[in-house]
């Protein structure tokens, strides 16, 4: 095993040989060797990612524990400066980072630049400011009568946010820049240290992020990155006794298993899990706007996004017009090489995932859904790459698995509802809430009062009214099996904090 110090060293990767782990400020050879990271668009090898052993993951957590005491006592200004410098460094190498993100994920060039690397820069900037936000809240004084607890007096109190400790950040494959930065930056801003376990499909970008933070002045042990294709790596990053909190983005079944382990050790959790977003479209809606919003499911990350409006619940009068417009919308989307300037839909992340999406579409047909558009991996299929055409399933019913389960691909299912006035609202809300998930849902209606009334009744962590846009200062997270906790904006600072009460006699 050979260790190479960060200073003066560019981490190995696609342009410089196999990638090493990053543990305690040192680039470390992995015990488990390396595995290939594949470009979903070409099936070519992007680079060799390191396979950590369980012992190395625990070493990373131990390093984070050792670094926590000093880092948690640094001034907010110092933590802010590190995050700001990291943003500068990522921005400096923006083009190379975007190309790596595109190659690892299959995202289009525009998405890799604007929604991956650029978002990471913005999040480091946001939480550099966040490090300076007040952590103390004064509480009203309390007058106590004399009694068994002491003599009469006035008690003052503060609620103080303190760092949790060592946070394991387990990130999703659909965005290896925005998702990790959204965990690492607020965790560091609050004085925590982190062990980052990237998704096995695209970990190389996360090592670039770690290198930027090290160059920016994050002390050894504050940021550690361990990757691997084996489930053992993720398990070790959760069950290490040095880990105080797990922040996870991924599927609900994996989140449930992580929650069981965390429960045994009373570890804090922040989980953003699956979604099956309901898009309610009333018959007075701006149909073109609704179709444009829903249509992003086909194109944005090729449907590999948990916030997508994949389950359309449309009032009967607009049912056929919506199907017609959504079919036309899908037909305009160019599927192909994500490097192409006019490409809108790139590939899915892997051959295995493409097979999973295909199987769901076939299942929908067997369940009685009508295939209106797409439904195949592309005809003619490109010789290489994991492509799948935008797919629309109509005549769906609430009990179908394609309506109830997260497909995570460019597939939209449409369910009609009837009724007028209050009865229509009741049916739409009942259909939307008939789900195990509750991440983001959407309402389209020209009657804004009705739209807000319906939004308040939806069991979802967020609701878009006549928009799919998000306010990044708003709390983000899910109801039901879509997650635990909230992040984004200042809510993320709270998520990576423990609240302490300090009481004194006046």
TrEMBL record:
Oxidoreductase among keywords: yes
Ranges in a coiled coil: none
Protein name in the entry: Aldehyde dehydrogenase
ATP-binding is among the record's keywords: no
Domain of life: Bacteria
Keywords in alphabetical order: Oxidoreductase
Pfam family membership, one: Aldedh
Residue stretches making up the Aldehyde dehydrogenase domain: 27-502
């Amino acid at each position: 095993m050979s260790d190479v110090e960060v200073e003066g060293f560019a981490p190995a990767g696609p342009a410089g040989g196999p990638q090493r782990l990053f543990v305690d400020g040192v680039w470390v050879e992995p015990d488990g060797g390396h595995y290939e990271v594949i470009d979903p668009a070409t099936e070519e090898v992007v680079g060799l990612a390191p396979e950590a052993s369980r012992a190395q993951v625990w070493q990373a957590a131990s390093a984070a524990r050792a670094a926590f005491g000093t880092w948690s006592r640094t001034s907010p200004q110092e933590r802010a400066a590190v995050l700001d410098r990291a943003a500068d460094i990522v921005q400096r190498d923006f083009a190379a980072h975007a190309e790596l993100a595109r190659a690892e994920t299959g995202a289009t060039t525009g998405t890799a630049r604007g929604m991956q690397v650029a978002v990471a820069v913005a999040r480091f900037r946001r939480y550099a400011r966040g490090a300076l936000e007040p952590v103390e809240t004064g509480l009203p004084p309390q007058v106590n009568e004399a009694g068994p607890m002491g003599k009469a007096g006035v008690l003052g109190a503060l609620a103080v946010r303190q760092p949790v400790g060592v946070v394991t950040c387990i990130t999703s494959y659909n965005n290896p820049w925005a998702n990790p930065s959204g965990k690492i930056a607020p965790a560091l801003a609050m004085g925590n240290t982190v062990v980052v376990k990237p998704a096995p499909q695209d970990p190389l970008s996360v090592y670039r992020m770690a290198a930027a933070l090290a160059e920016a002045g994050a002390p050894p042990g504050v940021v550690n990155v361990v990757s691997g294709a084996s489930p053992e790596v993720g398990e070790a990053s959760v069950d290490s006794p040095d880990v105080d909190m797990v922040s996870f983005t991924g599927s609900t079944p994996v989140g449930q298993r992580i929650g069981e382990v965390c429960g045994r050790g009373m570890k804090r959790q922040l989980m953003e899990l699956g979604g099956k977003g309901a898009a309610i479209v009333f018959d007075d809606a701006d149909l073109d706007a609704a179709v444009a919003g829903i249509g992003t499911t086909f194109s944005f990350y090729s449907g590999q996004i948990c916030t997508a409006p994949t389950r359309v619940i449309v009032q009967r009068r607009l049912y056929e017009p919506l199907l017609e417009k959504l079919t036309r919308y899908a037909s305009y989307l160019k599927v192909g090489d994500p490097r192409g300037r006019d490409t809108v839909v790139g590939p899915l992340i892997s051959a295995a995932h493409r097979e999973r999406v295909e199987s769901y579409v076939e299942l929908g047909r067997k369940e009685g859904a009508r295939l209106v558009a797409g439904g195949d991996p592309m005809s003619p299929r490109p010789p290489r790459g994991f492509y799948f055409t935008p797919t629309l399933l109509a005549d769906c019913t609430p009990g179908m698995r394609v309506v109830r389960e997260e497909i995570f691909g460019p597939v939209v299912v449409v369910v009609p509802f009837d009724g007028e006035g209050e009865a229509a609202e009741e049916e739409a809300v009942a259909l939307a809430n008939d789900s195990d998930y509750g991440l983001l849902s959407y309402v389209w209606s020209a009657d804004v009062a009705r739209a807000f009334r319906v939004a308040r009744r939806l069991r979802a962590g967020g609701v878009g009214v006549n928009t799919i846009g998000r306010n990044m200062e708003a709390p983000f997270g899910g109801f039901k099996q879509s997650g635990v906790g909230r992040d984004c904006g200042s809510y993320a600072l709270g998520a990576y904090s423990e609240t302490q009460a300090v009481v004194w006699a006046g």
